[in-house]
Design goal:
- By secondary structure, the protein is an all-alpha fold.
- The chain contains 3 helices and no strands.
- Helix 1 packs across helix 2.
Length: 54
Amino acid sequence: MTQTIDTNLGDLISKFYEHFLAAYGDEELASVATAAVINDLIGQAPAKSREAAA
């Protein structure tokens, strides 16, 4: 059985930021790390998904 979790991009960004803030203890570093992860995830999205978003 597959579990489905509904979330949005804002929730995902918040979770990554909270994680990195706890890990690094620095707001600026957490922001940069969060942006890097989100950019990597967007960059790995299949081409059809990116075209639909444009």
